Amino acid sequence: MIPTAFFLVLSIVLFVLGVAAFFIKRDLITMFMAVEVMLNSANLAFLTFAKSSASLDGQVIVFFVVTVAAAEAAVGLAIILVVFKRKNSIQCDDLDDMKG
Amino acid sequence: MALILFLILASLSAGGVVGMIVSRDRAHSVLFLVLAFAALGGVFGLLDAPFVAAVQVLVYAGAIMVLFVFVIMMVNRRDGRGIEKKKSVGILAAVLAIALFAELLLAVREILPGMGNAGPAGGADTAGLGSLLFEKYLYPLEITSILIIAALTGAISLAGKKGPK
Questions:
Q1: Nearest CA-CA partner of B122 in B21, B6, B19, B2
Q2: Which of B15, B16, B20, B99 has the highest count of CB atoms within 10 angstroms of its CB?
Q3: The domain A4-94 is classified under which CATH number: 3.40.50.2000, 3.50.50.60, 3.60.15.10, 1.10.287.3510?
Q4: 32-71 in A: which are within 8 Å (CB) of B?
Q5: How far apart, in whole angstroms, are the C-alpha atoms of residue A56 and residue B140?
Q6: Looking at the structure, do residues B102 and B42 belong to the same domain, yes or no?
Q7: How many domains does chain B have?
Q8: Record: contact B119-A82, CB cut-off 8 A
Q9: How confident is the model at residue B79 (pLDDT cuts 50, 70, 90)?
Q10: What residue spans define the domains of chain A?
Q11: Strands B117-118 and A2-3
Q12: Which domain holds residue B135?
């Protein structure tokens, strides 16, 4: 048997790695992947609490999170493509139009 | 036995994310992330959620990551240059990550001991999940379908725009 606490610690580790990846990487696509990692760690936390409280509601919420993540990926990647068409670059350092 | 399986899957998923951070090629990053999400699907299976595990592998490691691969294919063709990194940003991010990790562990330290055990032995209740999804959570489910349609039309209208050239 596995202590359920291990799963929560794994979810914390994944979330922290996602935050670190978001700040370390400099191009939009990889930053977007870091957001997906954070969403997945939230899913793991939902499932962990669903297991430890013996209820299925947490699993239902994971479905909604996956759906919203899919919608977000579709729109976000379309926006990245538009940015690439306009600027010919997806490095976030090149996107400084709003800097004063 | 289950503990060994969990440790393997957990290190695979965490290692996949670390590989995504350190690899310089975007395509390699995506492949590392597919590995991480597939391993995470196995972890979901250990939490008595086999259906969610299947959805994780099909939708996340499959569909969403293929979308990323497509976009990288379109972008890498012309924007071939690699990803340069700044050292100071990396150190700052590492400090922030360690602080956040300590903070989150402090936040959950009191509930960690009393959470019980998990294992693949318990019966999976996929039928209960389905009836919950279509009875208690019927309205959120329908709203999600509206969200999907809105996202689809938005993505199509965004991607169809012509650039200023």
A1: B2
A2: B20
A3: 1.10.287.3510
A4: 32-33, 36-37, 40, 43-44, 47-48, 50-52, 56-57, 59-60, 62-64, 66-71
A5: 16
A6: yes
A7: 2
A8: no
A9: low
A10: 4-94
A11: antiparallel
A12: 126-165
HSE of B31 in the Cβ direction (CA atoms, 13 Å)? 6
**Do residues A49 and A58 make contact, with C-beta atoms less than 8 angstroms apart?**
yes
pLDDT beyond 70 at B123 = no
d(CA B50, CA B8): 18
Asked casually if ipTM beats, i.e. exceeds, 0.85, the reply is yes
Residue B84 scores a pLDDT above 60: no
Residues 19-38 of B with CB under 8 A from A: 20-21, 26, 29-30, 33, 36-37
Mean pLDDT of B78-87: 57
User: Which residues, in sequence order, are CB contacts of B42 under 8 Å at separation 6+?
Assistant: B5, B9, B53
Instruction: Answer yes or no: do B140 and B113 share one domain.
Output: no
C-beta atoms surrounding B49 within 10 Å: 27
- Shortest distance, CA B83 to any CA of chain A (angstroms): 7
- B125 burial class (0-12, 13-18, 19+ CB within 10 angstroms)? middle
